[in-house]
Amino acid sequence: MTDPAGPGGQAHALFARPVKPRSIKVHEAALDATRALLREGGLPAATIDAIAARSGVSKATLYKHWPSRTAVAAEAFGRDMADAVPLPDTGTTEGDLLAQVRLVSRFYASPEGTVFSQLLAASVTDEGGAAYFRAWFLASRRAAVRTLWERGLARGDVRADVDVDTATDLLFGPLVFRLMTGHLPLTDDAAEAVARAALHGLLEE
Amino acid sequence: MTDPAGPGGQAHALFARPVKPRSIKVHEAALDATRALLREGGLPAATIDAIAARSGVSKATLYKHWPSRTAVAAEAFGRDMADAVPLPDTGTTEGDLLAQVRLVSRFYASPEGTVFSQLLAASVTDEGGAAYFRAWFLASRRAAVRTLWERGLARGDVRADVDVDTATDLLFGPLVFRLMTGHLPLTDDAAEAVARAALHGLLEE
Amino acid sequence: MTDPAGPGGQAHALFARPVKPRSIKVHEAALDATRALLREGGLPAATIDAIAARSGVSKATLYKHWPSRTAVAAEAFGRDMADAVPLPDTGTTEGDLLAQVRLVSRFYASPEGTVFSQLLAASVTDEGGAAYFRAWFLASRRAAVRTLWERGLARGDVRADVDVDTATDLLFGPLVFRLMTGHLPLTDDAAEAVARAALHGLLEE
Amino acid sequence: MTDPAGPGGQAHALFARPVKPRSIKVHEAALDATRALLREGGLPAATIDAIAARSGVSKATLYKHWPSRTAVAAEAFGRDMADAVPLPDTGTTEGDLLAQVRLVSRFYASPEGTVFSQLLAASVTDEGGAAYFRAWFLASRRAAVRTLWERGLARGDVRADVDVDTATDLLFGPLVFRLMTGHLPLTDDAAEAVARAALHGLLEE
DNA sequence: GGATAATCGAGACGGTACGTCCAGTCTTTGG
DNA sequence: CCAAAGACTGGACGTACCGTCTCGATTATCC
Q: Is C127 in the same domain as C193?
């Protein structure tokens, strides 16, 4: 109930038994409805009642499959976005990372980015939902960056003494910061400025 | 009513007339109560009803002074934190920035950091509150970094082609990212790793 | 403050001093605004705030002139209706009383009748307002009937052993009953049936 | 939701399905609490919040069962009064009607009569509540008079050309009028005077 | 003719109740 | 036996209006 397995695994309730076809149908129906609601009105529209009404899955059943409404939304959103941002391959490490930052920035600036920020916000006060969000969305994103990073490491282009997590946070944290606070817009130029600064450092050498 | 003035100014209602003492008393009482509630139970505890009950200020009046509960909390929090993080002065630009990142990281990791993340989360779905949060909290924080940054510029230590906003986001965005998602802890070591990476860049020179 | 003088006298506050012209202006302005509000939205529209806003008379002043909003409305309504129903003179006592009942029935069925019922309803939980309603509206209506009744007495047409109050209540109480409960419509036919029954009695002679 | 069924039927929500015991329990609990509140402080005491607090039924549920607080109170009051006024049987039609008027007058003069007037007043500005009041209280009272009236008709004691509704309004309208306006007291003598006048007519024969 | 004191407009304020919304739990019934 | 249906509690929301209050500005009579 509290251990989301993520894309590579299985959602918690599914292990209880050797796969009940009805459970799967129900699970998918709920996610489909949630996806639609997220598209139409963002996270605020994806209330438990709305999901139940639209999917035909009862509220009680929803709570058997997920710990909270945020969790449902996180899983639905994560699936939707699974392959939304393809890995860039520009030939150079710097180009790849720059391209990735630009893509993610555009994603954040899109309607889906709004949902992303709403889910991130909801995760703050809903640890159960946060776990699902990490498992179904963030993990795959970080994995993508890890691939790029390791490609750069193999080429000797990036500092070997920098952790991949640190690198990821440095490249995308600033975008998230802007997205959440709204103090500055998420333009391509801004994304590029941030990426360049991250890649080359803030200090004069 | 919708234009939070921030620390340097006055909250909206106070301009209407040549200062109504009652308004000021009420305003302060509400903020005091809110501060206490935030300390005790974080943002979730600072409901409008609770603020009204504890402060003796009626709900209707609260809504005349602020557009939403997030806004009250943001102003209360901003005042509380006004001078919580003193500017470091280590003698070197790198030392100052490193120290500042470490201080902010510790702040985020503290109970106040939790409130910060809750306010940031609430800002996502409450534009009125977000304005207050920016005006009463974020602005002063960014101003502090700006001071350090300009000090570094004067010394010729930092890249002149990097915007101060970009620099700020790069240094603190990663911390915010970790705070919000909880995917990684906010330790001193992590803060230092992020800061060093930001200062020296991710790429091999 | 609690003793409405009625049409023949003066409202309470006016006695305090040898007539302040401003008081009179204020009084009239409030009543004018209230009349307009009653016409537009009935008693529910005549809130103290609305009266104050429309008349330019402050709320505090309103409460110096009247004990409650119902009282203001009652006085405004009473003045408006002062000469709305002229005394019939058909030549016969029965004709006069029948005509009067018909006129009053039509009045109750009109928009003003709605306001009447609202005032009557408000009087139930507002004794201060009730006094004004009786003084400024009901009294003059009862006086009119008294005139007819005494005319009938002089002619020897009506039972001398029946009190004028009893007669008044008998003729108009049924109409008020219908107006308040809405269980039956207030048509001319119904009014006539009631009046005839009242005049000739329910029992076979 | 808007069609009160009255004593002979069932409140709206109960038809949805073949009897939900929970609904019934909740319904009764709300009515019990309301009855108690009415007894203690009349209609003003029977606020939705108070009913919810005392009965343990949540406000949301109350609004699912009744359209307004007046409706709850009307149903509670109607049940309470269901058999409060037994039908008189004096042997003569005139005696029965006189007795009934006297009983009703005493009822109006009692604390319950105050509640009655408050409900009637509330019905004026609350059509939803009015329907409940008519269905749960007024209807049964009118039915009682109808019985007496028909008894009189069978005996040939009462005018056959007078409608039972007209007769009812004529006998009780005056009492209601006095109750609502308070211009005259509701004594036994007054009741008798009114009843005699109604039975024998106002005009000299 | 200026001082004195009531009177007023403006509107902030506490208080009470409203009616609504949603989360999450629990009960009943049908397949 | 599981799931749909949906009733239910609990708690917060934001609004409306009441009647009281404080504040200055404005008279208008009296000295």
A: yes
